[in-house]
Amino acid sequence: MTQLRIALMVLSLFTATIVSAAEFPLKQGDIWVMAGDSITAQHLHSNYFEAFCFARYPQIKFAFRNSGVGGHTITSTLARYDYDIDAWKPTVVSVELGMNDQGGNTPEQYISNMAKMVTRIRTGNALPVMLTASPINNGNTMANIGGNRRLHEYAETLKEFSQKEKLPFADQFHLLIDVWGTNKPRENLANALPNLQSIAQDNDVAGVEHLRAFLLEQSKLAFKPVSMQGDPVHPGAPGQLMMAAALLKELGANPFVSSVTIDGVMATSKACVVENVKTENGVLSFDRLDESLPFPIPEEAAAVLPLFPALTELSQYTLQVKSLKPGMFSLKINGVQLPTVLSSQNLAEGVNLTGLAYAPRTPNIPANAIVLQAKNVLNAVAAKEGLVGQWRSLSQRAHAAGAAPELKDQLAEMTKKVMEADDKIREAAKRQKLHFELAAQP
Predict the structure, then answer these.
(1) Do 107 and 153 reside in the same domain of the chain?
(2) How many other C-beta atoms lie within 10 A of the C-beta of residue 418?
(3) Which range of residues forms the domain containing residue 58?
(4) Which pTM was predicted?
């Protein structure tokens, strides 16, 4: 395995903290409602976005509520605004609409409707946050924009509108269209690989040796074929993880988790506490307690990390080890060995532990502590959003004309349950002490 391939696979660049001109629009006490259509209603990128915030901003208390409904436009979202958005008493409302508006609205009509939405949000003393729609994953790029032209026009117009209104704005469309479009031809191969690997096990298949040689060459590639999954309009977990990262990056989310540099048995750190640094029998070990957590990434979507560097740029969770003897080293976290072996040069330059934690692993290798905690956070977010869905149905009935008075009481009780579920997310995202062991390989 070449040094370059190792570096690419684990994204082990020791990057400096990104300085963004944007100020991330999340403050103490915020209730952030994410208004959108079916892509928001999938509870994928919105959940990942929320999980990031719980991981990265443990010092403040806030809450997220999903308000995505399939097929909705700006106009139909305004029609449900009172019971589905305003009833939460939000302080922030992000608007991610346009996919369904494009059929019958020019860019001018789209912005006219968006202006009505902004006025309605401001009437409730909330901050509007403008998000472009995601691209259609159909192979289009900016050089050949095809069926994405109207969404491109919406994004450009929304940017101008947001600048004029001095609103937070995130353009995921233009961050993703070329990445998705360039990757599209390889998606068919990514989808076919499991079947090809199964066929390659059959010695009776004519020419199977050629298939095995092809699969071997594919396994050597630093950048594997990746599928966004889902359909062109509704990506699955990999595509929506990229959407969450694009939105967070554009809005100026804090990319820095923590850093540790070890030289001998001396450690310097930022945003974490390092203790018990020692070397015994050729193994360097230490304990690390971080102030915040890395980006909670769903493991089923981690294949896109090499494809979209913004993901690890948003999770700068670094380790640098100097003065090692030349050679290769394995790294364990809480006793679980990570699948990637690192060189002394990699470690001297610094590695991003986010990339290492999510490096591909075989089924016989257990998930490490970083991945397990991420799963717990994401599961807690999903459980809370299940209650939010029940709340929405009850709220619609409670706010209807002539509604029975007891429905408001039931809604208040459901609101308490949702808030209790918020606390469970915070519990899942509590920092935990991790034990690291770095051992030289024979």
Answers:
(1) yes
(2) 18
(3) 21-254
(4) 0.91
